[in-house]
Amino acid sequence: MDALAERIRSCWSTLPDLAPLMIAPDLEAISGSLDGEALFIRNELRQCRGLRKLHLETARLGAGLQILHCVLFPDPRFDLPVFGADIVAGPAGVSAAIVDLSPVTDALPERIAQGLAAKTDHPYSQPRELPPWGSIFSPYVRFVRPTSPVEDGWFVEEVAECLGVLAEAVSSAEPQAADDPATVRRWQGQLRYCRQQKQNDKTRRVLEKAFNPQWADRYIEELLFDDPPALPA
Q1: Burial grade of 95 (CB within 10 A; 0-12, 13-18, 19 or more)
Q2: Cα(70)–Cα(224) distance, integer angstroms
Q3: What number is the average pLDDT over the span 88-94?
Q4: How do residues 101-129 score in pLDDT, each as one tens digit?
Q5: 110-117 vs 149-172: helix axis angle to the nearest 10?
Q6: First and final C-alpha spacing in the chain
Q7: Which of 101, 105, 119, 143 has its CB 3.0 to 4.6 Å from that of 81, i.e. a possible disulfide?
Q8: Where are any strands of DSSP class E within the chain?
């Protein structure tokens, strides 16, 4: 978990015009309890040219469960996908690991698809089935249960490869006008992505149990999967 978080931060450092993004103080470092165990959540936010929001969440429950959640949302003016990576790990190892560059229109930009097609195809022993709302993911999504330190390492490398593909695309992408039909389509696609992710009831139930329903709604709506800002008229 720590190795992946550090790898993500290292990849972020290569992005153009990287800068802090404001976060409410009470959402940056969060403490609570779940089933009698201490829960701690840390959130890091950045922004850069081409990406409106870079979010890394790391969470620990007691001495066992660890969660990493990372999403990079593009500025809709740029023809870029959404990056997402999640890991859930316990004392027995990683139970779920997913990474993808998800399209916000009907298909990935060609340069992104070519980059993903060229990345290493590791032979994980336990691939997992996507959830019912998983139609937002690309054909290159990786969803697995790593079963060894070797497979853990494969996943960390795969996340870095996906971030490398995205970073290369960001460096060469040029913005389109806010009222360009392509920008509007990408904005609508990102809105759909966020709304599909909000259908993950497992996340909501855990947050409601650890805190309360109102807090869970705010956390999901404002931080995890906030709708893209309205385009200028």
Answers
A1: middle
A2: 9
A3: 89
A4: 999 998 999 999 999 999 989 999 999 99
A5: 150
A6: 42
A7: 101
A8: 19-20, 29-34, 37-48, 51-61, 65-74, 82-90, 93-102, 142-144
